[in-house]
Structure formats: C-alpha cells, structure tokens
Amino acid sequence: MMMRQQKAMEAFHRYPRDDGDKLAPGSSVYDLNSSTYGYLVNICKQEYPCPPLVFLYAKMSLHRYNFAQGTMFELIRVQKYVKSTGSANASYYMTLDAIDSAGSLQTFQNKVSEYSVGRFILTCPIARIRGEPIDGKGFSTLVDSTLPECPAVNPFDTYYLVKESELLENPWIRLYLELAVAKTDRHYEDRGAGLADLEIVDVAIDEGQGLNANNAVFYIRYKDLYKANPGHDLVRIAIVRRNFDEAMGRLTLVGQTQSSDVIPNMTKIANEEDTGCSSFKGQIQSPEHPTQISSPLGISEDHEEANQLAMMNLRVEEAAGDSMELDSPSAQDA
C-alpha cells in the first residue's frame, strides 16, 4: 500500500502545472486522446458502446447541471470518458452531448467520482458546458458517506407521496433508483441488467425537505421484475440521500436498497440487511433487537484499505488541479 501511495505522489509531482497552480495548456484530462499513467481513455462507438454504468454517471452529471442551473438538458450520447486508474474507486471524466427543451445541442465536460468499494456513494463536482466557467470550487472535500437509514415510521404512510405527474416531470427520481440498484444489487452481472424492468410503486419524501431541496432523502418502493423468482424479493425499497453543496458546486448521492415485502404479517427476511428496515404489512419498522447479518455491502479489511488509498488518490488528483483543468486555455478554446 505504501508503494502505491508513493507512486501516486510521484504522479502528482510529475503532472504539468503552470505558476497559477492550473494544468498547463494541453493537459486537460478531458482532452486526452490516448491512455497515459493514471488515466484510461475510452472512446464510445457503435461497435464499442458506452457501458451502462458510465451512461448512468453521465445522466447523474447532467442532473447536477440541471439542478444547479434550472435547465432541462437530456443526454444524447457519451463521446468518450477518461477513467482514473490505480484504485478500486475511480473518477470518470466524461465528454458528452445533450439537448435542452428548446433543441439546443451542447457538449459537456463532466466528472463523477466513486468514493467507496461496493457501495452507492457518488459525487459530481464538475458539470458544465465546454467553455463555461466552473460554478463553485469544483473539487471535493469530506463527503458524508453514512448510508441513509429507514425512519422509525413508515414513510409511505407518514411522509409526502410524490404524485405520478411529478414522477413524469422529474425523471431524475428514476435515475436515483437505477443508480441504487446498479450499485448495490447487480454485483455479479452486467450493471445495467434489468434496469428497464424496474417498476416504481411509491416515492416518499419528508414534507420538510421537498423535491427540489438541496438536502433530501427519497424512499422509493419498487418492483424488481428482473429478479422476480424464488429467493429474491419482488418488492424492494431504495433509500437515496441527496446533498448539493452550492459553495463547492458538488452533488453527492448516497444510498442503498433494502427488502420490503408487502405480504401481510411477513417477518423479516433472513438475508435482509440490518439497517432498521423490516417488512410487516408493507411497513418499515425498527427491529427491537437488531442482529448482525452478513451483507454483500459489508466492507472487508481489504476494501477498507482500498477505500483509504482511493481517498488519498482522489485528494492527490484534486490537488494536482483536476478541478481547474477546464480553465486551461486548451479547454476553453475547444
């Protein structure tokens, strides 16, 4: 581990920077045409399409832009993405095309970073039209990585239920669900497998927060028709916390999925993760005597080490100027 840290620091010192602590002209990560130390360049073509997870990350980054700017851009395609290497957690620098409601086609240069192995903890510190200045500081500081838990009351009985019309007007709610499932329920298969087969049943949110609040927790009850077979729960719940830091210009999404069986008097499912969620007549309650249950999201010592290294690499990456590379002359003239 120490050797990998030393290599990361060597890469930091080798990275070209000018006197203003910005990347030198031509050094933008987004403008890389071939892979180099620490970065893997991927061009998305018809014969080599963009992976489903990267496509979701691109949608998340556009959501970050729309949320901050009050726009309604929709993803058209991902031209290419540059993936950081050297740790299990990666940053994705994506060049993508999107169109707004008026038909204006724009090219974006966005970034999404993973913060934990095998968990749904994502940040988007950069999302902008190529050539535009960065809103906010554009780099990451400490992220609240605690997973959101079920409340002591049934949110679908107590909290505000999102209307069907609001679901249609806010497609990012489904994006939250797809990200939660792809990051937590699709460990041993294609990350995009069965996402089209997810059916939203209810969405609840605390009335004190609201759909457009910077800080909000969403409770999404859904049917996973892709895994509708013995041994898997048909009805589940995704819990997603959103935080948008205006000063930093950073969107953070943290969440997980849980079992939520609606059969009356159903006892807690044996392999359900113990975070306070149990299913009794479709309600979400806190168990009286929590027990330690092994979970596919459990972090081993190796994962903890990988996470620590990834956090260090990300800080080195940010310190090297990845939040400012878009201000380089080459990026602005592109």
TrEMBL record:
Highest rank taxon of the organism: Eukaryota
Region span, Disordered: 276-296
One Pfam family matching this protein: protein_MS5
Stored InterPro entries: MS5
Entries under NCBIfam families matching the protein: A_thl_para_3677
PANTHER family xref list: BNAA09G28770D PROTEIN (PTHR31260:SF39), CYSTATIN/MONELLIN SUPERFAMILY PROTEIN (PTHR31260)
Protein name: Uncharacterized protein
Organism taxonomic ancestry: Eukaryota, Viridiplantae, Streptophyta, Embryophyta, Tracheophyta
